[in-house]
Structures are given as C-alpha cells and as structure tokens.
Specification:
InterPro entries: DNA-bd_dom_put_sf, MerR-type_HTH_dom, MerR_fam. The protein is 58% helix and 9% strand. The chain is of the alpha/beta class. The strands form two sheets. A four-stranded parallel sheet has the order 5-4-6-7. It has a three-stranded antiparallel sheet with strand order 1-3-2.
C-alpha cells in the first residue's frame, strides 16, 4: 500500500496553480458557504488541502464549478448534478426528467406565498436557508426572489392586510440582510446609500380627467409595492457583495439635494417609482448633475427615465470590484508614502 507523504503532496500542490476559497468565490459567483455545502452534502468540487487543512482549488475544480452553475441555470437541482458531471456522454443524453427541477423554483415560490400569507416565520426562513445555502446568489435572485416578487404586487394590492404582510416581510428579510451584512468578520468592500424616489402626480391632463389614464391609484400602489420589494432584493444582493448599506428610505427630489456633499458613501442608488412627469425628470436631472456623490438610477422603473440614461447603474458586482480595487490601490499608496516618510525621518535621526 502506497504511503502518504505530506512533504511530496505539499511540493505537488505548490507546483500547481491553486486558489483559496475566497478567490474562487469571486471568480465563480458561488460563495464559500455554498462551496462547502456542495462538498459536504453532495461530494461536489473536492479541493486539495494544505498541511493545515485550508482548501485550495485547482483549475479543474473551477471548471467543475462553472459546469455546475450551467446545469443549475438549466433548472437541474444541485442534488441531481453529480451524475451529469461523470461523463460528457451522460450530459448530452440527459432526458427531460432530469430537467423537471424547473418545478423546484415554482414549488418554492408557492411555499413562500404560503409562508407570507400565514406569517410563518420558520417556513419563510427555511426556504431561504435552503436556496441561499445550496445555490449561487445570482441564480436564487433570478429564479426565486425576482420571480416571486414579480407576482406579489398583484397578490397584495386587493388584500386588506397588504400593508401588514408587506411590513412583516420587510422585517423578516431585514433580519437576514443584517445577518449577511456582518461579512463573517471581513471588512466591507464599499458603502452605498439607498434612496426610494416616490411617484409624483403632476397637474391632471385631459386624459386623466376623463378617466382614461393608465396611471390609476391601483397602478401607483403597485409601483410602490414593487419598489419596496425590489429594495429588499437589492439589499440582499449588496450584503452578498460585502457592501454596507445606509437605507435612507423615501426622499423626494428636493430632499435628495440636501444630501449633496454630506454623506460619505461610494455611491447613492436611487430607486424611482413610476410616473415622474417631464418637469420632475428635469428637476431630478438638475439635482443629479450638482451632486458630489456618485448617483445611479436602479430598479424596475429606472429604464423608463430615458432622459437620465447617463445615470443608469452599472453591473453591481463589477462596480464593487472596481471600487474595492481602487481602495486597495489607495491604501498601498498610503502605506508606501508612510514608509518613505518614516525612512526619511530615520535617516535624519542617524545624521544627528
């Protein structure tokens, strides 16, 4: 039987291009908790180990993570992925029964509706724990969170307890956001302020007065609910990206201008609701052009403000990486200057 030689294994590991779990998470979009769960529960993505037990991932591991992500995006449950990775032949011959897991997200959405309407805290968090623990956040965001919350405004609007349900859901998700925002002891990569811009009803047009306008009270309520729900998903995503958030609530355009040059954040994310008349859009543009803080429009109704396309938000993950890299470069420059100053002072002291 071949003897295990830790020294030989260590030399072999050093000779390969290996990455720690944090870097792999950034490369693949799968967080460290999920990678560990895949390994522990399903025997997926088995990394190498350092003598001290730290995980190191090979290029083959990273390729496997990308393959797993591809299957998950097709609707295959994580519990059914492993056989599909065994050979390319199996992967190409997979039949429709393996892809019936599209029903998984539908079942979870149905479960979330039941938990919400019954105010069932345990059931709500059980579904979120399962989804966020086993699947990449971006997949959960697309297949579960956004799909569910796209349905909710129409379900909530006719209910007498709509505000109660929405307030309860906001409270429950806020507790999750707070927990994820702890970043497992790691420093935040960026800080963002989030502002909701409410709908503004200008003077009634002849169309509105005749009752033919599409912007009814129901539309406005749905717009508000949609934005409140989107704000929750946004804050969950920012927590996942290790961004600390200052939630500034609902501010009108005038109040937004009062923030100018007073808030120490990397950016302000503005969530407009529907129905901003041209005069208010022009006023908003004027305020944004004067703001010292970087401001981005984001959310389901942001694309309707076509005159403000220059302020549309970029991809958040890419933006966070850029901000983080710029901050790290600034810190390195500061350390370099500090070391140079200390060396100069030491030289002057020696001359004396």
């Amino acid at each position: 039987m071949k003897q295990h030689d830790p020294k030989v294994e260590a030399e072999h590991l050093e000779s390969r291009e290996l990455l720690p779990i944090g870097e792999v998470s950034l490369l693949t979009g799968v967080n460290a908790v999920t990678l560990r769960a895949w390994q522990r529960r399903f025997g997926l993505v088995i990394p190498a180990r350092t003598p001290k037990g730290h995980r190191l991932y090979t290029p083959e591991n990273i390729q496997q993570i990308h393959e797993i992500n591809a299957w998950l995006a097709k609707g295959v449950a994580i519990s059914k992925v492993k056989p599909l990775l065994m050979s390319s032949a199996l992967a190409t011959e997979v039949d429709s029964t393996a892809l019936q897991e599209g029903d998984l997200w539908h079942e979870q959405i149905t479960g979330l509706n039941g938990a919400l309407f019954e105010l069932d805290q345990q059931k709500l968090h059980q579904i979120f724990d399962e989804a966020l623990g086993l699947y990449p956040f971006q997949l959960v965001k697309q297949k579960l969170l956004q799909a569910w919350m796209a349905q909710l405004p129409a379900l909530l609007e006719p209910r007498l307890d709509a505000e109660l349900l929405l307030a309860w859901l906001e409270s429950e998700l806020a507790s999750r956001i707070g927990g994820r925002a702890s970043f497992a002891g790691q420093a935040s990569l960026a800080q963002i302020g989030v502002v909701c811009l409410p709908s503004v009803l200008g003077p009634k047009t002849a169309e509105q007065q005749s009752g033919q306008s599409n912007m009814t009270h129901s539309n406005i309520m749905n717009s508000s609910i949609t934005n409140r729900l989107y704000s929750l998903v946004l804050r969950l995503e920012l927590a996942e990206l290790r961004v600390s958030v200052i939630n500034l609530g609902v501010l009108d355009i005038t109040s937004l201008g009062l923030i100018n040059n007073r808030l120490k954040v990397d950016a302000l994310l503005l969530l407009p609701e529907a129905n901003h008349p041209p005069s208010k859009i022009f006023e908003l543009q004027s305020v944004l052009e004067q703001m010292q803080e970087t401001c981005y429009l984001i959310g389901p109704f942001a694309p309707t403000l076509t005159a403000l396309s220059a302020f549309m938000a970029p991809d958040l993950a890419e933006w966070v990486n850029q901000v983080s890299a710029a901050k790290e470069q600034h810190r390195k420059q500061q350390r370099k200057q500090k070391n140079a100053a200390e060396a100069q002072q030491g030289g002057q002291a020696d001359e004396r």
